Structures are given as structure tokens and as C-alpha cells.
Amino acid sequence: MRVKCVLCDKIESIQDHSFQAKRLRNRPIHTYMCQGCHERIAEKTKDRLATGNFRLYRPVSNDDDW
Q1: I need a labelling partner for 59 at 20 to 30 A (CA). Which of 11, 14, 17, 47 fits?
Q2: 43 closest CA partner among 53, 35, 55, 14
């Protein structure tokens, strides 16, 4: 299956029967991002977290003992 990265428009091939290919076929909301873009975003996010000015909002879980 040929896929196109949403960020850099690079065209790559992935296996037709892989989980990622099935997800892209069945759910159009899912988009493909190449490994290079994925690593770049992860690195930039880690750098922003290290500065202390970046907040990553995660849902607050209420653990009630009742």
C-alpha cells in the first residue's frame, strides 16, 4: 500500500496486511506520518519539556476509594 506523509508529503510503501494499513483503510480520520517526521516531533517535544515552560495536559483521574 502506498501512503503519503501528512507533514512532508513523502510517499512510502507499507505492507498491505499490516495493522497500520488496515487502520488507514478502515478509519479515514487516521493519517500517516513517516518515521523521520515522527522522530523529529518527538525530539522537539522532549526539548520543550526540558525547558520547563511547556505543559503537557493530561486528563486528571479521580481515584475514589468508595
Answers
A1: 47
A2: 35
